[in-house]
Amino acid sequence: MTDAVTHFPEPEILSREDTEHGRWTVDACSAKRGVPHTIIPERIMKAPVDDSDMSRCIRAHEMMHAKVSPAGEFKAWIDRGVASEDALKSVEEMRVNLLCQKAGFDVKSHLSDDGETYDGERGVAMRDWHGCVMMAIACVGTASHKKFLTGVRRHDRFWGKCLLDISKRALREMEKAYRQGNLASTEPHSHIGLAPIGFGHTERIAEWIDRIAEQDPPIPPEPEKAKAKDPDADAEDADDGTGQGDPAGREMAHDNRGSVDIRKEEGFGERLKGITPDRGYYDIPRWAELRVEKLPLTTLVPGTIGKKRIPSNTGRHPRRLHRYLTDPEMRIFDRTIKGIGGVLVLDCSGSMDLSKKQIREILQASPGVTVIGYTDRGSNTPNAWVLADKGRMCDELPFTGSGNGVDLPAIEWGVAHKQRANSPVIWVTDGGVCGEGQGTSEQLSMQCIKYCIRNRVIVVPHLEEAVETLKKMKRGEKGRTHWPHQLRYVYRNMNGSRLEKDYPNGW
Amino acid sequence: MDTQTTLPDCWSQFQQVLDNGVDRIILYGPPGTGKTYCGLTHGNVDAGAFRLVCTEDMTNADVTGSFMLEKGDFRWVSGSALKAWNGDGTQGGRLVVDEIDKAGGDVFATLLAMLDTPESASWENPQNGRVHKPKPGFTAVMTTNVEEMRELPPALTDRFPVRIRIDQPHPDALKILSRDLRGIAVKMADAGERRISLRQFMAFDSLRKGLEPERASEIVFGDRAESIMDAIAVDGVS
Prior knowledge:
The complex is a heterodimer of chains A (507) and B (238). Chain A is α/β, with parallel strands linked by helices. Chain A has helices spanning 53-68, 74-79, 85-102, 107-110, 116-125, 129-139, 143-155, 157-180, 199-213, 262-274, 323-326, 356-365, 407-416, 442-455, 463-474, 485-495, 499-502, and strands at residues 25-28, 37-39, 44-47, 292-294, 299-300, 308-312, 333-337, 343-347, 370-374, 384-389, 392-393, 425-428, 458-460.
């Protein structure tokens, strides 16, 4: 009897710009999804070593991870907050599979473990749209993709159609990135210091996939089993673009729908088509570090941070004796209440304009408000200034308008410095969101929009509106967002729908 | 040597040690990295460089010399160590000893004596009774594949104060290889159990000029051919 031939991967041959070269620990494992893995910082690789084509593709896949995926900095990429961990992992799988294909490995025919059809069925049965999107993206371009979509179609043909469309578009985006020539680059980025640069493409597409995955798919109508069609019958027009469907699925009592609410479902499909990745991408978008300077707040503005006295029926000194006769609740005492406070985050870039008079108006409208202005001027100088706090304001405005650079960090600062949980945070901006030393960025704009929606930050384009909003809130009315034109444009460009329609109140 | 080439750290150390007059050096590390070649050629070897490959079967004749029959008469022929001691007659040469740990006991003892400090080292020629001492400038480079210096006898390591681990081929040796294989040869020279020597890459490089790369790989790398070719393909992606 002859010994079976084994093929252990050779990761020592691989070179990277961002890590030290060294010896690897390579072990054999089974060719099942989730078992083979690569830990780059510890130089550990597990992969099947048998002679089959599938195992060879899995080895190539793991080797490609060792070659191009982030080494010890994956968490730092997640912490940037541009895309979720799930989306980053899924899109990274797609990048790795595409690069394997470019390196000459037939992942389209062989990279599959035959469990994907069941994964697809289970995902739809549980109405796990997010999971299905992630899985479809992770396996696009491989043999798994077709099997996964077959499983999806057994339960919901419309989902299958949508997922196929999304996958194709994602793959096209990745192909475009490949043509730029740095998709597999492992160099560290000169500004953000993160590596590898090629992962920037993963992040950009992952941000887009996140927006698709967070959509709510339409609720399916009740199944009409009598009219149900064979879900695999149209597999040939629903594969990953090759025209070769896989009709050989296991027989099952599926609940695929016979009647489809076309109007409703096609509407969802059209909406998905309107969600697009960042087209203006030329570099990894990045925020500058927020460097806050607290200016000398020498000028006192009347209003003593919004404190005022109101009648009360308990207390020690009856200051309102007349109420003994006039007030049914006989509130003859005083109690002190504080104003709602709030934080005003001002975009002080070159495209905005600000004067001392306006800051005074803000403090008069809401005496307890904290005002922070920001504009990034490069180098290590402060890029945000506390202009007013606790009823006092600065005497001199110290900066001139320059780039933005720290929009999101400044808003985050504002949210973190709210006086109370219900204190409002108002972001005054024209919507021209830029990264550090960069032009306007759709990705960064979307990050700001999402953050403002999540944290109920009121966004207004002009300082006058901010003052009006503060006055309204002082009267007990609710503040409302009036999205600036540029943010509305970016949102529509990237999501195909109107920001003011999706979030009329701002959240 | 091409001075334009940036030397890897290990080779740079070797060069600095030679330039600054250290005369006893151990070069150790994986085989096929050019330790012996550089021992024979680098630094001042104007007075000659002599190689001694140690095995269990060698005798002192290889080290110091022996009488050999020549034209009906016995004539003294000096061994490598003695030749290196004498150098060109005025200046000592270089002795490169490969795998000294594999030498037998008596040879090892003789070598220890020959590699001692210039003040202590001496040997008497049995033919004429003349006492030899190393000429000024005599240097010795020992090479070994032993990774742990603790495995070498202390008497030996004590005579070689400087030990440099050579973990990658010398850039001069790499120039023989095609450009696309140079980086890979460097990385695989110190890959532990999966090490591939520079000589194998040279053979592969030579074979692939006449054969398909896959066939050349099969011939040189055997069962590992597929994995190595796959890794080269993955590494080549941009």
